[in-house]
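Contributing new records

If you add data, match the layout below exactly. Sequence lines come first and carry their own label; structure lines follow with theirs. Keep one chain per record. Anything else will be rejected by the validation script.
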Amino acid sequence: MASEISLADISGIVGTEVGVSGWIVVDQARIDRFADATDDHQFIHCDPARAAETPFGGTIAHGFLTLSLLSALSFDGAPQIREQTMGINYGFDSVRFLSPVKVGARVRGRFLLAEARFRGAHMLMLTYDVTVEIENEKKPALTARWMTIIQFDPRDRPEGS
């Protein structure tokens, strides 16, 4: 998939996988920074010695840390829309945390454009079915139905949309 597409091309790619990001390492430093930002210092995230005694065998990333990586994964893996002037998160219809991300693991995002709907003269709502894969693991870290809204100049809206 191209790294950049036009608004006029959106309808033709609905229902297809539009991108796969590169890998991101989830190391202990990233987990600790997230714990500090969210005040979630549960031992399974921040205490390697104690977490080693759990079935995880070591620390794991917060589920919300993995979810928060979607922005970075989408910037790397999903095509950017040429006419976009701003993008915002709209929300999630569903999020499922399927497997823990162990410290040191690499994750990447897989993006399927499930729906694209124009809203008003200058907005487009995009709905993605997203999977965050863990390298060398059968089950993904998470799956989600993620909605974003992009804004654009109304003069750039494709005819007939």
